[in-house]
């Protein structure tokens, strides 16, 4: 059975707290692992969460502020120390190449793993296409260049037993029809319907902008920053961030099924207030105010 879940490694913005580590989020998608925004302390959090370097296939950095990238040095060296047997690909803003280079070679170590660098530029676009997902990026609005990431599974087909029976198709013939597209004059469209692929998006530091809405549209699971509460909306805008209410409205308008709020300012002591404001903003789907070491399943297909 395929595993699709988010492992939350850290949820703090700017500085860690006693209860929240710097950012870090691992998306397990079938047999791959995509690590988003490894902040300082990510290696320690991986250990606590039972995540190994061998689980990593891609590193995706939204931007080069320290709470989203300082853990890269340790993670990259750990990948090499553990001699990860498969290639690993890193995506990050092309404008921050000098920062990535410094982090990749922050100290001396022996390189044993092929780490491919595939930076993002312009307004973003498709970064990778595999049999189980397409990964693309969208430009966001932050004081430094920042990108959000979106992963979309290809649409499939859902066979309808009633229609199969009406057309006299059963047993091995079902597999033949799925493989060939038609059998004895019966097509897939006659006995099945489109099964929409699952969708995931990761949105960190940004003001409201077109890219946020594009990333969130139709997501089964949206991970999005909500650094500030609504009363500090001007502070959020000044520093290039979202409030809980803003993030929730984006999710509601985009038809998001499960909303994960994260990246909280240390100024707030009551995490439940983020949920209250998200609900007040009109989001009625499943909602998680993320905590370190949470494990969140991608919702089952409808």
Description:
The protein is an alpha/beta fold and about 300 residues long. About 25% of the residues lie in helices and about 25% in strands. The chain has eleven helices and 18 strands. It has helices spanning about 40-50, 65-70, 70-80, 95-105, 160-165, 170-180, 190, 210-215, 235-240, 245-255, 270-280; strands spanning about 5-10, 25-30, 30-35, 60, 90, 115, 125-130, 135-140, 145-150, 155-160, 180-185, 185, 190-195, 200-205, 220-225, 260, 285-290, 295. The protein has a seven-stranded mixed β-sheet. It has a seven-stranded mixed β-sheet with strand order 7-8-9-14-15-16-17. It has a two-stranded antiparallel sheet with strand order 10-13. Strand 7 (about 125-130) and strand 8 form a beta hairpin. The longest helix has 10 residues, at about 70-80. The model has no long low-confidence stretch (mean pLDDT about 95).
The fraction of residues assigned to DSSP E strands is 25-35%
Provide the helix percentage.
25-40%
The N- to C-terminal Cα distance equals: 18 Å
Low-confidence stretches: none
Widest beta sheet: strand line-up: 6-5-4-3-2-1-18
Biggest pleated sheet? 7 strands, mixed
List how many beta strands DSSP finds. Answer: 18
- The SSE string, one letter per element, is EEEHEHHEHEEEEEHHEEHEEHEHHEHEE
Calculate Rg over CA atoms.
21 Å
Q: Helix/strand/pairing class, anyone? A: alpha/beta
* Shape assignment: globular
Average pLDDT works out at 96
What is the tally of helical segments? 11
């Amino acid at each position: 059975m395929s595993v699709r879940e988010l492992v939350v490694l850290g949820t703090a913005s700017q500085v860690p707290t006693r209860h929240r580590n710097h950012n870090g989020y691992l998306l397990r998608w079938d047999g791959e692992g995509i690590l988003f925004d490894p902040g300082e302390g990510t290696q320690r959090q991986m250990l606590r969460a039972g995540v190994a370097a061998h689980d990593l296939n891609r590193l995706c950095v939204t931007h080069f502020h320290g709470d989203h990238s300082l853990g890269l040095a340790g993670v990259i060296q750990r990948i090499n120390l553990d001699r990860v047997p498969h290639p690993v690909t890193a995506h990050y803003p092309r404008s921050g190449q000098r920062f990535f280079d410094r982090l990749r070679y922050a100290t001396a170590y022996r390189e044993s793993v092929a780490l491919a660098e595939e930076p993002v530029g312009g307004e973003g676009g498709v970064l990778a296409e595999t049999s189980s997902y397409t990964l693309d990026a969208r430009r966001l609005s932050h004081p430094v260049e920042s990108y959000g990431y979106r992963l979309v599974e290809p649409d499939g087909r859902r066979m309808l037993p009633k229609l199969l029976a009406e057309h006299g198709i059963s047993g091995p013939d079902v597999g033949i029809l799925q493989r060939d597209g038609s059998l004895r004059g019966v097509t897939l469209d006659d006995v099945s319907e489109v099964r929409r692929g699952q969708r995931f998006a990761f949105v960190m530091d940004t003001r409201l902008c077109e890219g946020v809405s594009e990333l969130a549209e139709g997501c089964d699971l949206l991970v999005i920053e909500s650094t500030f509460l609504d009363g500090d909306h001007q502070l959020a805008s000044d520093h290039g961030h979202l409030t809980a209410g803003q993030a929730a409205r984006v999710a509601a308008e985009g038809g998001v099924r499960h909303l994960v709020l994260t990246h909280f300012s240390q100024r707030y002591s009551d995490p439940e207030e983020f949920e209250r404001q998200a609900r007040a903003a009109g989001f009625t789907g499943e909602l998680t105010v993320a905590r370190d070491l949470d494990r969140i399943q991608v919702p089952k297909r409808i």
